[in-house]
Design brief:
Largest sheet: 4 strands, parallel
CATH topology: Rossmann fold
Radius of gyration: 17 Å
Strand content: 15-25%
Oligomer: single chain
Shape: globular
Number of domains: 1
Structural class: alpha/beta
CATH class: Alpha Beta
Order of helices and strands: HHHEHHEHHEHEHEHE
Distance between the termini: 38 Å
C-alpha cells in the first residue's frame, strides 16, 4: 500500500510545476521552465565541473584522482532549479522531489550515462536529519532514476554514521575533513556491483567522493555519480 501513497497525494493535492506553479499532470515541466535550464557541457571528464577550453581534467582531479569512476551533472545549479531544490530540502516539497527525479531520469536516459550500472543508490542522510525532514531528497531522485533505468533501488547499502554540519560555506578542504569516515557500507549489498550513486547537488564533490570511497572499500566494482545539478 505504501507505494500508492504518492498517487493518492497527487489526487487530492495536484502537482504543480516548480517553475510556474501551474498544474502539471504526470510530473511534466512547463516548456518555458525546461527552456531556462542550462545543460552541463564541456566539463571535466572526471568530475563534470565546467571548464574553459583547455585540459580535459580540472585542477582538483589532476592533483588527486577522485574515488568515483566518473561524475555527471545534468544541469547547472541556479535559477528556478536551485529554488526548487531548496524548497524540496528545506520547505518539505516532497512532490517536487519526485518531479526533479523525473527530470534527472530523463536526462540520464537521453545521454545513456547510467548504462551498465547494476543498482541505483542514493546518498543517505543521517537518520536524525531524515526524521526531521521527513524524507531523503536524494532517495526521491534515485527512486525515479531506478524506475526509468529498470534497475533496483538500494537504500540499505550505504548509511551515514554521523551528522555533518551544513557545508554551503565550508572550503573544499574543510568539507573533505568533516566527511572523513561519515559513511558505512554493507558489503553484502554492494560487493561486486557497479553502483550508480545519486545526489541532488554536487559542489566540491566532497560528499560523493567520501560515499564512493566507502562503497569501493566495501567491494563495489565501480561507482558512477549522477547529480541533478552541478555547481
Amino acid at each position: 500500500m505504501l507505494h500508492l501513497l504518492p498517487r493518492l497525494t497527487d489526487l487530492f493535492f495536484p502537482p504543480l510545476c516548480p517553475r510556474c506553479l501551474a498544474l502539471s499532470p504526470a510530473g511534466a515541466f512547463c516548456p518555458a521552465g525546461l527552456g531556462e535550464l542550462t545543460p552541463m557541457t564541456a566539463g571535466c571528464v572526471c568530475c563534470g565541473v565546467r571548464l574553459p577550453p583547455g585540459p580535459p581534467l580540472c585542477r582538483d582531479c589532476r592533483v588527486s584522482v577522485p574515488p568515483f569512476d566518473v561524475a555527471w551533472g545534468s544541469y547547472a545549479y541556479g535559477g528556478w532549479l536551485e529554488e526548487a531544490i531548496r524548497r524540496v530540502k528545506f520547505g518539505g516539497q516532497e512532490a517536487w522531489g519526485r518531479f526533479l527525479g523525473k527530470l534527472l531520469a530523463h536526462a540520464l536516459l537521453s545521454t545513456g550515462f547510467g548504462r551498465g550500472s547494476a543498482l541505483v543508490l542514493p546518498v543517505p542522510l543521517h537518520w536524525r536529519r531524515k526524521w526531521k525532514r521527513g524524507f531523503n531528497q536524494s532517495e526521491l531522485l534515485a527512486r525515479e532514476v531506478a524506475r526509468a533505468l529498470g534497475r533496483p533501488l538500494e537504500t540499505r547499502g550505504l548509511f551515514r554514521l554521523r551528522p555533518t554540519a551544513a557545508q554551503a560555506r565550508l572550503s573544499r578542504r574543510d568539507r573533505l575533513h568533516q566527511l572523513t569516515g561519515a559513511f558505512v557500507a554493507w558489503p553484502e549489498k554492494v560487493e561486486g556491483m557497479r553502483v550508480l550513486l545519486v545526489d541532488d547537488v554536487m559542489t566540491t564533490g566532497a560528499t560523493v567522493a567520501e560515499a564512493s570511497r566507502t562503497l569501493k572499500d566495501a567491494g563495489a566494482r565501480g561507482v558512477k555519480v549522477a547529480v541533478l545539478a552541478r555547481a
